[in-house]
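Input sequence (289 aa), recorded before submission:
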Amino acid sequence: KQKNPHIGKIVSVQRIVGPAAPGEICNVVLDHGGGLPYWEGQSYGVLPPGIDPKKNKPYGVRLYSIASTRYGDDKKGTTTTFCVRRAVYIDPETKKEDPAKKGVCSNFLCDSKPGDEIKLTGPSGKVLLMPEDKVDTTYIMVATGTGIAPFRGFLRRLFGEGNPRNKDFKGLAWLFLGVANKDSLLYDEEFQIYKQEYPEHLRLDYALSREGQVNKKGGKMYIQDKVEEYADEVFQRLDQGAHIYFCGLKGMMPGIQEMLKGVCESKGLDYEAWLEGLRHKGQWHVEVY
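Predicted structure, token format:
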């Protein structure tokens, strides 16, 4: 709880984007000592140190999606991984960073050193949990930027750790990721290894909006455009019981929903009824921030 947070320690902080990526994203590993067990798709809260000058009291909790499986990246069950974008504010007039408006918690995490203490709450969240009642589930994952975090946990669980789910999985994991350019791809080296090992069970489709990829209208390739390229198969798999997940900045959803509505209309489907059907069956999972 926020009033009595769990004290963890930073294990490592590593920049994981290339030089041409806009902004900085860090992979942050922290040790919770086994005191905060979680499932893939959940979040932890972080209480950054310091006093909020606007409220004159300690900063409130910030939620971060967990990017590791329940076992942690070292498989000992005592660590958790975050994927954190350093939030900075660029003044539109001066075009320079205004340090007074930088993101308090993301900068605290990205600037942390091994051994630093971190106040944690949670875990929380049921929306993005993975159903594992069948061996042949199809998981369609749609992420922008650091919204990749829960899906990295999913893919590690399905393909990366030799756990029971990895051994019995006969379904499909299909990841759509939208980022600016190749230098902004997150965890791609890991994912490519899984794809080589399990080519029948993993698909990766990337929308790189600043790499010259174009959508069918000749504009920049955003996440909704990449999903639309495969709309028929996505809809068919949803009809057959696939689960679809969305994670990232909330600004991604209007474009996606507009695209899905257009596909529904082209198929003679009522969009609201189609969406309500997915929600009713528990196949529609959205966590945006």
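Checked by second reader. The longest helix spans residues 252-266.
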